[in-house]
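Problem 3 from the worked examples.
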Amino acid sequence: MNLERTWQAALRLAPGVLILALIQVCTVARSAEPGSSAPAPVAPVADPCPRSFAAGDVVQNPPALFSSNGVLNVRFSYQHRIDANDPGREILCFMTPEGLQNPTLHVNPGDHLIITVTNNTPALPLTMTVNPPNCGASSMGPSSLNLHYHGTNTSPTCHSDEVIKTTINSGETFQYDVAFPADEPPGLYWYHPHVHGQVEHAVQGGANGVIVVDGIENVQPAVSGLRQRILIVRDQEIPGEPEPVGSIPAWDVTLNYVPILSPGDPGVTDFVPASLQMQPGERQFWRVSNSCADTILDLQYVFDGVPQTMQLVGIDGVPVGSQDSTQPGQLIPVRHFKLPPAARVEFIVAAPPASVQLAQFITRSVDTGPIGDNDPQRPLATIKLADVADAALVHGAGAGVGANHGRDDGRVGVFSAFNPHQRRFAGLSSAPVAARRTLYFDEKDDASGETTFFMAAEGQPEQPFDPNAPAAIVATQGTVEEWTVENRTGENHEFHIHQIHFMVESQNNFEMNGAHRAPGVTGQYLDTVEVPYWDQNPSHPFPSVKLLVDFRGPDIGNFVYHCHIAEHEDKGMMSIIEVRPPSVAGNSASAVRRIGASPAVGSLK
């Protein structure tokens, strides 16, 4: 991009828009020079992406890396191999030079996460051009890469959590420097590729891991010192792709790469869960990420078929009940928890008594709608009582792979003092609403039967996602908006927005199709929420969620909101939002369009 011509063009713009143009120029300039010198490529690792676990194996925490002195430096080689058990399936992963696969990344609020990544996958034809301003390459294709730091309240600028214009093609090296805010809630987040059109393939290939913002024990002391389990559920194709009916699911799942075999797998007649070890009488802190591309989970902990109480600690990285007060977080008892793709939940569970014959961690069946996937009930893990050391439950513990490996993450830290930082979302529930909008999921079939997916705003044309399109919504930094998100289709959808969180005000009209409101969600701060399917009855209202969307943080720029069922996202169910600083929004007449404005609040489309 010619920066001089961009500068000249900016000079002809209105004063408010000039500021935004200069922000874009600075972003592009930095994309050309990510640091004082180009980062050294990360060499490919021999025998990448190991999948060494067998059905029924004991679940171990992933390997872990920890920040030191405010920085976590990570070097990733993005690699692939072909699944030996399913030659049509490509396995993908991030490998460190020491051979760690998709490690858990531990940071503290205020830290910098610096990731240098080299795309060492084979080059494939580039199929889409991305208009300037570019961050990295200007064309993308099936082998392209970028990284999304899901749920983090971080900047959408180049070399941070930016996914619209960031492209890393085969053979290229790129460096991220993600600055976590000092008031980032302690909890569970995750990272995964986010190249449009390739998300489902990369996520089902297994290229993802979790991020833990440490310090939750100082918001919720009930977890202090507990053994913690990092539990990552991923989905993948079933070999042979059998018809997903009855007990045959649309997708197989794994738990920390331990395969959960299903009746759809060759030679398998029943589900084969993994094993989770607990000591008699102990309580554990389970931190669960639904890192599936398409599979919806409804988690339950059962003893001999009887649901047990799980003490809910956090959702989507935010300790429940902690953000609008200076008091510790709450514990909310639940008997099950609906976890859409990309969402995370953290809870405390107690080991089963010795008298229990069968203790299991399961996902209940989910009605995803008449045109949705088949998600039957299945066990994820059987609980085994055993007297085991912490290190035995952490993959690679004590492997000695560098200074930032430090220690395993088998236990939560010990409470020291209540978190001194102001809660990030304090006052959101009572903040004045600057705008109200209605958004909706929709699908349209063409004459050939192909389905196009839309993430639309009421009053605007339905358009599938285009990275070169202007923002569908323009919001102002420092404000709070109220969004109603409707589902106008015959299958479930999962609303996710990058960079920020929202508070769930209400879940509406779920009962029209027999669905139930998700327990523990209303009044909490999420980045991903499910909206169940519409029953197609014209006299029935659309199921919806009402959200308070928080733009009060400092970040401005363009980012996306979309359905996080990755197949739907890849096929167009995503749109761009632009958050402008107040000076730009106030000077630009085209920043927003008010429809039916009232003296108090306008309805923005």
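Problem 4, a separate protein:
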Amino acid sequence: MFFRRYFSHSAFRLTKVDILKQIELAKAHHAPELPVENSIALSSQDLSGKNEINDKKSPLIMIHGLFGARQNYSSVGRKISALSNRQTIGVDMRNHGASSHVFPHDYAHMAKDTIRYLEAFGRKVVLAGHLMGAKVSMLVALQRPELVEKLIVIDNSPKAETLDFRFTRDLLAMCRVEQELHSHGTTQARLLKDVDRIMAAYEPDALVRMFLASNLKRPSKKADNSEKVQFRIPVLNFLKHDVLPKMGGWPSELVRKHTFKKPVLVMRGLDSNFVADEHLKSLFPTYFPNFERVDFDSGHWLVSEQPDKFVQETLKFLGDA
């Protein structure tokens, strides 16, 4: 699966030094500053489809990872709902999907957004999150445990870690798409070919490039009738303000001495390094004394690599199997 290869050590055309130089050049590109908002209303989508819903069951709220969006859970969300009669909802974090582009982009503010969403939702929920979404979900459960019935942590740990350099490389690839196609334009017919051509210099895997390109907005017409190309993520602002290091962080000061004593399921990809054995022995018991773990024969993107097992383990944890 391509998600496993996303973290493989395949060669790519530009060296790390080349990419770091291009990052400095890209930061000089004009990008309008984003508004500053303490919390925002998040965009969401009911993934349940036409499935019959049992209102006595707490809804499952699913939060995507970095560079993702709520549609990442469309298939598994519908299947979980069909097999459990449980409402499933995908939520877009700030600066992703259909949610607003605002700063700051950090875990403290994403947790505030999610708490605001859950307060407005008005019901206790099961919260599930992957990568960035996993840390947001953990923070919300620790800060406001009364809002969360159960928690599913998908391949991440409550610990500050440096993100793999490939995230930086792929962010730069998206920046270069916006910069080059802003300068030279494109047409609807050429759009995907042009985007793939530009990103290929940074990301060698065609399927990863397709995943990144799924974040493209529908192009709008410029004055010369060419297409203005932008992503649903404010990629130039992310690069300019060094957002990625924050995404590897963990704001421990916000949850010092906090615990979430309700059931927690930690899903770990065995070919991923986001959940180490030492995290399971020390960190998780500190925050989540009632956690259990299930291992996947997968990389970091376990939902996409093993969707059937993800659905099965989720249903088992929720008591819907």
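Solution to problem 4. Residues 44-161+252-318 form a domain with the Rossmann fold fold (CATH 3.40.50.1820). Strands lie at 44-46, 60-63, 88-91, 125-130, 148-154, 220-221, 227-228, 264-269, 291-296.
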